[in-house]
Structure formats: C-alpha cells, structure tokens
Amino acid sequence: MEKFIQRVISIFITIFLFLHLLQAKHYDIDRQPPRKLIFTPHKRSDSDPQQVHISLVGKDHMRVSWITEAKHVSSNVEYGKVPGKYNAKATGEHTSYHYFLYSSGMIHHVTIGPLEPSTTYFYRCGGSGPEFSFKTPPPQFPIEFAVVGDLGQTEWTSSTLSHVESRDYDVLLLPGDLSYADTQQPLWDSFGRLVEPYASQRPWMVTEGNHEIETFPIIYPHGFKAYNARWLMPYAESGSTSNLYYSFEVAGTHVVMLGSYTDFDADSDQYRWLEADLAKVDRNKTPWIVVLLHAPWYNTNTAHQGEGEDMRKAMEELLYKARVDVVFAGHVHAYERFTRIFNEKADPCGPIHVTIGDGGNREGLALMFKTPASPLSLYREPTFGHGRLRVVNQTHAYWSWHRNNDSNAVVADEVWLQSLSTSKSCRAGFDHHTSSFLNDEL
User: Fold this and answer.
1) Which residue ranges does the record assign to the Purple acid phosphatase N-terminal domain (predicted)?
2) Residue 32 placed within a domain
C-alpha cells in the first residue's frame, strides 16, 4: 500500500511538473516565486510626519497627507521652491479612526497651491521632521503615467517600486489593492511607510480594490474605513459624492477612477456621476480618456472569472460612447493586454483593456490562463511588473509593460496607441464639446 501511495504521488508530481513546464514554455520565462512580507517600522518621533503621500487636486493644487502619532501636531504644510526656504504655508484638516482595538494616529490632509507646472517644490509637514520634495506634472504633452495594481508590501513590491523609480514619471495610477491589510490595521501604517519615499515625490492617484473593503457584520457594515481616512482623493472636486470614484485631468488626459465595490447599476449614484462626468470632457482640449477600476471586465485568466461582468454590462456602453481610449484593471495577479473591444467583440472604436494586477501582492501570481488563447487577448503573462503610459501628443501614446527581474525591469510588451478622439472613423457623429454622440449608430 505504501509503494502504491508513493507511486501515485510520483505520478502527480510528474504531471504537475509537466504542466508547469508547458506554462513556462508558453511564456519562455521562469516563474517568479512569492517573496516575504516587508513590515516597515516607525523610526521617527511621534510628532514627526510619517506615511507622507501626495495627490492631485484640480489643475494646480496638491494634497499632502501624512500621519503623526502625537495628537497635538498642527495640520499645516510649509513649502517653497528652494530647499529649507518656505515662502508659503497652508492649513488643512485632520481625522482619525478606530477599528476594534486599533486606534489610528492623527491623519492630516492639507491642500497647497496654486502651484506652477513642471516645478520642484520642497515642503515640510506639521512644522517638524524631514524635508520632502515633489515635482508637479507638466501643463501639456508629453506626460508619463506609471501604472501599478495590487501592490501589497512584499519583497516583490519593493522590487517593483525600485523599477518604477528608476525612470522618471509624472503621476502614478493604482487600480486598487494597496496595503493588503485585510483588517490588520498596523499593516496600513507599514504600507504607508514603505511607499513614502515614492508617494511623497510624485502624486499617487488610487482607487479601491476588494482588499480595502474591511467590512464586519453590524459593527463595520459599510467598509473602506481605513482607505477613506488615509487615501483621500479629489472626489468632491470632480462632482462625486464618494471617495470610491472620481476623476481628474492632467496635461490633456482625463482620468476616471471607478469603484468596483460600490453600486454601479443605471440607478446608482456612480452611474449617474460617470455619465455626467464623461459628458463634460471636451476632446478638443482633452483628447485622451483613461479609466481605472479593480475587477477587470475582460479576463482570460482562470482566476476571478466573471467578477467584473455585472459592472461591464452596466457601464461599458457609457465608456464606448465616450470613446474611452484605455481601461486599466487589477485584481487578477498577472498581466494581460487585449485588443480594442466592445460588447465582447473586437471593435476599433472600443477601449483597449489592460489587466495589471501584478505589483507584488502577498497572494502570489495567477499562473493559469484559459486555453486556447482568445483572439481578443494579444499578450498575457503571469509575472510581477509595472506599466508606463507615455502620452506623447494629442494623437499618440506609447504603452509598455516592464517585467520584474531581480536587478532590472525588462520591457516585455509594448504598443503604440492612437487616441480615438483623433480617429476619423470613430468620430463620426461625435460631438467634440460634450463627449456624447448625436446618435448611437456609427
């Protein structure tokens, strides 16, 4: 009996290794194993700022967010164009929250500006601690977005962030799943400290994923308590009533951050907001529209199949009519790029869908894709990495996906994109001033 069990195990291992080799052969690379969780400790005084990060607010303002353990620190930011010399000062607000036995520090949010574009500013938070600096985005093309999903705080996360930082960019976009705290609130603090060297220098614009929900029956039924308190985005400035979805414009690009985990049907606040938001975009002045959400609408990985389908059915037509150029998603821990799609079919006037949930999460990679490959899926690979969208001018942008290696990032996928607002065939019947269609038939 023992020999029989050993033989069965041997056969199982052989089959597993064979399938693994087939998968590796398909992508012609070695699979990346999971790496350890990084817990970043607090090393400053209680009154000094920690977890500093910045985000865009309107066309010429920036929100500075940070946390102090001390409760008496004022919510102000001093800033200027010369290190150590601050000729401007702004005061904001602070908040805190409790989650079971956990009590957060004081969470400060201060909006500074107006600021000049393409300019480096030096700033200090709360009157003490280290000096930080950031560079504002350019007023016009070209502009470069770094795109990273499902980030987490593992050694792969650290690798991804170092690769992102190895080349300059203007704004980081994150389509959900930030800290992977999953109700363990100290991991929110650890994440904030881990990303501070990057998020304090360039604006990080994020939307929520499933790991931000953190509900608990009766006590915390609504969720997103830590996320909303810590990662305040410019939702009010975009006419949204929820921090879970909003939009912003920068250098000729309209970026829409949608919420996969709040209501999205035709009767929802999010749907009505999205419809009104897209209708306001003047494609003559803002030729590019980029959308981010967490659960992908198109996905040929075996993981998380169909989890974005209800949202796709509810909202896809709005994006199609607005001629959205690209949709970025996370959730699936792999990389995949589709052709232009609408209603599950190739369509030259639909957006390109990209899944980029491979930032460095602790759950590992989603290794298995459906076979045979869908003709709609042009590139797919279960590897950690990050992407860059360089919007070169009104008509063209360059997308590249960079696979993580130990010491460098390798460009594994790249494609040039043309804005749908400049495509003659897709502009037929298009009202450039309202981003709506005069009729639904093209």
Assistant:
1) 49-136
2) no
